[in-house]
Design brief:
The complex is a heterodimer of chains A (94) and B (260). By secondary structure, chain A is of the alpha+beta class. Helices cover 22% and strands 21% of the residues of chain A. Classes of the chains: A alpha+beta (94), B mainly alpha (260).
């Protein structure tokens, strides 16, 4: 048995309306203490309004070896990028 | 006792308790069981140091009202001898193992929160203001130390035994928290100080369920250090305070007036 505490991935929402963003990871014995540790490690300078923690082992990642199969096909499809439309000057935040 | 003199003493008790415990928690920096806990303990220490500064600065103002000249927060923290400190004996107890640190924090945090909640209703607005600000920080401290007491108590055989031993060892130092003397008497009727006697029942009601969940026993001993007016609040300390102060005050003692 490992004596290491499990690793948790930490997501912080910096202000209302924005999405939670991955900020790093830390060790904690369980989920409640993971939240508290995240508060102490990642929000000391008023960085957040909300914290998500996820056990690192619960994250399924794409394999680097699958990169070509997953991402290459979209490379050649320039028409999927919205770069062919003239943007009206008065429309902001697009 | 003159009201300013009593208020000065009372503020030293609040401020010194925070500053001494902050110093103890700071001793964990670089020695915490894990990085995350290292930062967590330091954070709580910094919260307490911030509160202690406010209390001592206010004590200096009150001292000026009383004597015509008052000391600064730094002079009070760094240039007084041990017997002039008015902190609870509980908070000067050594860190020991992690269970000892957490037991000390657990006993203190719950009492601290109740005290600050009462002081937030103080008739002295400067006290009420500081207490209202500190309550938010201490509400978090309460959760954190309770979480650890539960996890260590309801953990392995060894963590349970260590946690129970720590609670038993520090128990006789909790009585002083709820004792009052002439300083309190001079301020309670005026609505300035909180009546510490009234905090003991709510304190027991708060720590009881946590200890139950942690499968730990509430220590039963009736004998208490410092009760009857001869404890930290009156300047009577354990041998541990002098060692703590020699480290905390070293710089100002060796280089008087040194500044950043």
């Amino acid at each position: 048995m490992s004596n290491e505490w499990p690793l948790w991935e930490i997501f912080i929402r910096s202000q209302h309306g924005l999405a939670h963003k991955h900020v790093g990871s830390l060790h904690a014995p369980d989920v409640e203490l993971a939240i508290k540790n995240a508060r102490d490690v990642y929000t000391r300078r008023n960085e957040g309004v909300s914290i998500w923690v996820v056990k690192s082992t619960d994250i399924t990642a794409s394999s680097p070896g699958d990169r070509e199969a997953l991402f290459e096909p979209s490379n050649s499809k320039v028409y999927r990028h919205p770069t062919f439309f003239p943007m009206p000057d008065e429309v902001k935040h697009l | 006792m003159n009201k300013d003199e009593a208020l000065f003493e009372y503020l030293l008790r609040l401020g010194d308790t925070d500053v001494v415990l902050a110093q103890r928690l700071g001793e964990w920096i670089g020695h915490g069981p894990v990085l995350e806990e290292d930062i967590g303990l330091a954070n709580i220490g910094l919260d307490l140091l911030g509160q202690g500064r406010l209390w001592l600065a206010l004590a200096g103002e009150v001292e000026a009202d009383w004597k015509g000249a008052g000391r600064s927060e730094d002079e009070l923290a760094f240039l007084r001898d041990g017997n002039a400190f008015r902190n609870l004996q509980l908070v000067e107890m050594p860190n020991g193992d992690f269970a000892m640190t957490m037991a000390r924090q657990f006993y203190f945090d719950h009492a601290h929160l109740l005290l600050l909640q009462a002081l937030a209703r103080s008739a002295e607005p400067r006290i009420a203001e500081i207490a209202a600000k500190a309550v938010k920080e201490v509400a978090y401290h309460v959760e954190r130390s309770a979480d650890w007491v539960i996890r260590l108590g309801d953990g392995t055989d060894e963590s349970h035994a260590r946690m129970q031993k720590a609670l038993d060892t520090l128990w006789p130092y909790t009585g002083e928290i709820f004792a009052v003397d002439a300083v309190d008497d001079a301020l309670i009727d005026a609505g300035i100080a909180a009546d510490a006697r009234a905090l003991r029942e709510p304190w027991l009601a708060a720590i009881g369920p946590v200890l139950d969940e942690a499968t730990l026993a509430l220590p039963a001993g009736e004998w208490m250090q410092g009760r009857g007016g001869r404890g930290g609040k009156q300047g009577v300390h354990t041998e541990h305070l002098g060692h703590l102060l020699s480290e905390m005050q070293y710089l100002q003692r060796a280089y008087p007036g040194a500044r950043w």
